[in-house]
Protein 1
Amino acid sequence: MMFIYSGTGNSYHVARRIADALDHKIIDMAVAHRYNRHTYDAEGGDVIFVVPVYCMGLPHTVMEFASKLDVRNPGKVYCVSTFAGSSGVEAHQLSEQLNGRLTVDGCFGVRMPNNAVSYSEPPTPEEASEILAQADAETDSIIERIRNGDVGDMRTIRYEGDDGDGMYAGYEDFRVTEHFHVNDRCIECRVCEEVCNTRVIKIYHRKPVWDEEKCDMCMSCLNLCPKQAIEYGDSTQGRRRYFHKDYKNKVLGIPLRY
Ligand SMILES: Cc1cc2nc3c(=O)[nH]c(=O)nc-3n(C[C@H](O)[C@H](O)[C@H](O)COP(=O)(O)O)c2cc1C
């Protein structure tokens, strides 16, 4: 079984490739957490987490979900992360949240296009396709290693410093929603509300409002807005947006109105 979290489809794409090759069922952690589903039976099969790296660590919802997760009869447990620059302390954090109920046997990382528009501009379409081609090759080698039952830290790109936890502390300030705003390009399509992993976006007077103090900062609202009407402070203005073309598969069943 496979537990995934994805803001803009990169992790979903990697997860889908692995799940198809190894015949795994995909469970979306954002949805499972929302409906309070934390108990599973792996029936002796491997348990694979596929997650994006946020501020060197895990998305808030993944931390919360993992702290409650109970999986019976697990095989080997793997953490596969996607990131734009380097992986960080995500596998370590996952182990901590699982607190001995599951032990992470192996971790991998896949470099994908950057979706954190507020940090830096996402790649051009040409740059993105180059990164994605390399990512598919990396994912195929991960599939073989999982098939072989390999264990250990098998990430090819990783942060070598010792302040990963310190950098993760910055995530708490970053995920404050007051910086989000919508401009008059908004066509009131409600895509942002539909794609929000934490369901913090509410529609008031036909426009989105971020109705909780904090969210996961998955950036799906900002990147998926068909009119680029959502900004985060001043930092995202004039910058490209990014989402993986597989995103629409992630939200199968949700009527995206493009
Ligand atoms: C809030 C936030 C923080 C991020 N922090 C990092 C980071 O610390 N290191 C990194 O390499 N990429 C970072 N990224 C980039 C994502 O990890 C990367 O684009 C990932 O593949 C997105 O996956 P998704 O499309 O499944 O959401 C960050 C993205 C977001 C939205």
Note: The mean pLDDT is 94.
Protein 2
Amino acid sequence: MANPAEQRPLILIVDDNEQNRALAQASLENEDYDVAVAAGGEEALASFATRAADCVLLDVRMPGMNGFEVCTKLRTMPGGADTPIVFLTAQRDVDTFDAALRAGGDDFLTKPVRPTELVLRVQAALRLRRLNAENREYFALARRQRDDLMRLTLQKERLTAFVVHDLKNPVSNVDLQAQLVLRSKDLPERLRAPVEGIRQEVRSLMRLIMNLLDISKSEEGRLTPATAELDLAALAAEAFEAMAVAAKAKNITLEQQLDVTHLSADADLLRRVLENLLDNALRHAPEDSSIRMTSRLCDGSVELRVADQGAGVPESMRERVFDPFVQVESNDRSVTRSGRGLGLAFCRLAVEAHGGRIRVEDGNPGAVFCLSLPHAH
Ligand SMILES: Nc1ncnc2c1ncn2[C@@H]1O[C@H](COP(=O)(O)OP(=O)(O)OP(=O)(O)O)[C@@H](O)[C@H]1O
Ligand SMILES: [Mg+2]
């Protein structure tokens, strides 16, 4: 039982964005903390001078005094030297992280911050304050290691983001050039197939790049669909066209029966979901078979299915195939090993960003990937 005479810990929230302040305040008051808020640096320092907070949540980018300056000043105030200061920032990069540590910050959270995570970090920060001197030494060591690890992670993220991003333009240029060659009248017939082959490979590379980009965007909470009314039939036709060469190579027919064609979704994301599903289906379907795309209305949602006649996904893997880097081991030599197990991870993120769901069922034989999306109103 908490001692009622004991003062509840005070958390000071400093953020120029009112919504962020209100969200953090509500999350912390829910946990019975006292909360003070400040919309800027001056206000934060004044509040701290009146009553020193037990923990400060500090936004980095604010008009006037920025978070780092506020932190440096707080450290010189009475009670401010050992108050845990947690930076909240939208910029997830090594430079910001280092600057936060240099300014004397204790912890670093990237926005958007989940309420539970915020509360956990505050609890951890308060607990650390109560540690005795010996434990503090261990903690300082652990913290140095944590900071090194965090720095490495951020550096790796930055490198990956650069590589992936910088690949995008040259790769799409290769595709454009290949299209030009295909359109040229003097292209000898025997070269048509190899150039189409180039396009197919380039598109598959492009899909991988886009999957990676969107997965990392989604980890940062930035994958927001640009929703608009769209024609599913046209979108399916585009996806079929993108996979035509691969389908021809295995003599697979792509069929569609769309009972619903009206949908409100992000055309680019949805087309790439369909391409990923078709890519998988083509990889797993036997030669001379068919792949079927259907749509219908079901309980107010649009249900879209992509069904193939391959080996299907074993029941034990039906949840896990949507996790990143998960691939089912296959003994079937006709199944061409593809990329990295990112396709379905992207599909799930994209579908869920629309408020929809995706699952895989048994087509008996074959796999049926089924996605349900909210219907346009
Ligand atoms: N239509 C399908 N039939 C059978 N197994 C499938 C089917 N689609 C996906 N799978 C299984 O799920 C795994 C994950 O698929 P996912 O699309 O995420 O990755 P991938 O196709 O292996 O690689 P990537 O899509 O990144 O190029 C696949 O490796 C495969 O084992
Ligand atoms: Mg795939």
Note: Residues 276, 279-280, 338, 343 surround magnesium ion (ligand 2) (CB under 6 Å).
